[in-house]
């Protein structure tokens, strides 16, 4: 759940910038006004720093959120690539939550992930622009300070639920039996972060850890998953993606994967195997 909208981002940047890179700050092609059209990808201090360095140019878009929040279910449940990404135009329970209405360009996306071994398929919904999912009574009671109204993540299982308010998963908790579990926490089985990203990079270089938590094997599929949602809202169509060939079943959507750029700015030629 997030209150910024991908549609707002696209309105600002899609027509102006031919390509965006998955980096803290990405530079697009020059616009009609003779300045570079720039998209900043990376929020907080990163985006502020980048903006300070390029404010003389034409900043057309700023984005950041998806990889922070969708990271939670993708990492926790070992999700790979989705088999289907599709818009859900009518799916919203904001009025039921607090009587308010979402923004006019709010949107809901549905991601379908396949089974992994003995683990069942998973459906992930992304709500933005003030849209909200239908929150179970137990979650509303557990969220005593109403923090989920500002966004967050909710994972619903057969036996329990986990929710984490806010963009980043800094305070996840079980909905049921949370206090009991805290008295006797299970053994740690997952690798813990060394510290901030810079510390992790240095630790990996020194050989103290095998990989950074957000290594390319994890970060690339996560980024592609987020971008598939952007293709869904831009096209209004079902997106069925083949990561091996980097193509979409509906061939008319492949132009979104690698848009044309002007001569001298070519990248990844021959990458798409269609």
Model description:
This protein has about 270 residues and is an alpha+beta fold. The protein folds into 2 domains: about 1-65, no CATH class; about 65-135 and about 185-265, no CATH class. The chain has 10 helices and 11 strands. The protein has helices at about 5-15, 45-55, 65-70, 70-75, 95-100, 135-140, 180-185, 195-205, 215-235, 255; strands spanning about 25-30, 35-40, 60-65, 85, 105-115, 120-130, 150-155, 160-165, 175, 240, 245-250. Strand 5 and strand 6 (about 120-130) form a beta hairpin.
Task: Give a quick rundown of the structure.
The protein has 274 residues and is an alpha+beta fold. The protein has helices at 6-13, 44-54, 66-69, 71-76, 94-98, 137-142, 178-183, 197-205, 216-235, 254-257, and strands at residues 25-30, 36-41, 58-63, 84-87, 107-113, 122-128, 152-156, 161-165, 173-174, 241-242, 247-248.
Structural class: alpha+beta
Unreliable segments (pLDDT under 50, ≥5 consecutive)?
Answer: 6-32
Read across the widest sheet, the strand sequence of neighbours is 1-2-3
Rg: 20 Å
Strand content: 15-25%
H-E string: HEEHEHHEHEEHEEEHHHEEH
Mean pLDDT: 79
Helix content: 25-40%
Structurally, the number of domains stands at: 2
Features:
274 residues, three-stranded antiparallel β-sheet, 10 helices
Secondary structure layout:
Elements: H1 6-13, E1 25-30, E2 36-41, H2 44-54, E3 58-63, H3 66-69, H4 71-76, E4 84-87, H5 94-98, E5 107-113, E6 122-128, H6 137-142, E7 152-156, E8 161-165, E9 173-174, H7 178-183, H8 197-205, H9 216-235, E10 241-242, E11 247-248, H10 254-257
Parallel strand pairs: 2-3
Antiparallel strand pairs: 1-2, 4-5, 5-6, 7-8, 8-9, 10-11
